[in-house]
Amino acid sequence: MLHKTLIIFILLWGMVFSKEENDLTILSWNIKMLTGPYGWVHNRVERAENIVQALKSSSHYDVILFQETFSGKIRKLMYEGLKSIYPYQIIPEDTKCLVRSNSGLWVMSKYPITLIDAISFSNQKNWDILSLKGAKLYSVIQDEQEIYLINTHMQADYKKKYNNIRTQQYTEIYEKLILPNDKREIPLILCGDLNISIPVQLRKMLKKLKLDNGPLLGKLQFSSIGEDSELLDYILVRSDNYQFQSIERKILEISKKSKLLSDHYPIQGIFKWK
User: Fold this and answer.
1) Is 18 inside a domain boundary?
2) Could you report the average pLDDT of every consecutive run of 10 residues in the chain (274 residues)?
3) Alpha carbon of 97 to those of 81, 102, 123, 130, 257: distances in Å?
4) Are the C-beta atoms of 25 and 19 separated by less than 8 Å?
5) How far apart are CA 242 and CA 124, in angstroms?
6) How far apart are CA 146 and CA 272, in angstroms?
7) Distance CA 250, CA 61 (A)
8) Domain presence at residue 19
9) From CA 32, how far away is CA 23, in angstroms rounded?
């Protein structure tokens, strides 16, 4: 069954990609790699192996940004399988408080990448208090062009009761990460699992961050997988962007068995330079 699922995944992956030579291509994906008993229950090793095989079979992406890669064992397994394609990586650093934890934010790249700045959110609730969620700002150099990328994962549970916490978190992203590092000549792209689906909340966030969203290509208009499927994962770009001619966003439907890989579909961004 897993083998059949992987074949379906690879076929669909190849069908949705239309990269040209000089495009900047990004994949953002919450892959649900939890630590301890939670990870064992969700078959993380098996899923990680399948994700590696799928990414190796379709190595179109310049940069891959992962969320929920809390497990160091899984990151090591995946990096060993992908380092020939993506030699550059920046891993989340473990910090031990009550339990060992980290941000779960991991990036792999074909191009040199540097961590410019990072924040940890000052307020988290429920199970999120066991993690060190926040946002990280990276610099990637593609063909002598510098790009700023932000990877983030905001408060889980997109229901209304945590709206105020997410508002506080994206305000911190803007005030502590975007503003202090603002350079208009450098394109800025934010990716991640934002756990926001209500249109009015999304508009409020975009206005604060001074970032733009855009339409999704294809029929799939949600990224979370489950009874209440919602669009929670985004690729956003600075509102005054002038470097890109066009931006294509698409949620990738891996297969009907995609729960074997994650509880989120990945989102793909293709940025065409002017």
Assistant:
1) no
2) 50 54 93 73 82 87 96 93 96 70 94 96 86 95 95 86 93 98 96 95 97 96 88 96 94 66 94 95
3) 31, 10, 16, 9, 37
4) yes
5) 35
6) 15
7) 13
8) no
9) 28
When divided into structural domains, the chain yields a total of 1
Q: Residue 257 has what DSSP assignment?
A: T
- Other CB atoms within 10 Å distance of the CB of residue 226: 10
CA 224 distance to own-chain centroid: 13
Cα torsion 173, 174, 175, 177: sign: positive
Q: Identify whether 142 is part of a domain.
A: yes
Instruction: Give CA–CA dist 91/108, Å, rounded.
Output: 9
Q: Quick check: 58 and 85 in contact, CB under 8 A?
A: no
Q: Do the domain assignments include residue 66?
A: yes
What the block records as the tokens of 35 is 């630590």
Is residue 133 within 8 A of residue 102, CB to CB? The reply is no
DSSP character at residue 16: T
How many Å apart are CA 40 and CA 31, to the nearest integer?
A: 14
Domain span holding position 38? 2-12+24-273
pTM above 0.85, yes or no: yes
List residues bridging with 211 in a β-sheet: 238
**Can you give the CATH number for the domain in which 36 is found?**
3.60.10.10
CA 246, chain centre distance (Å): 20
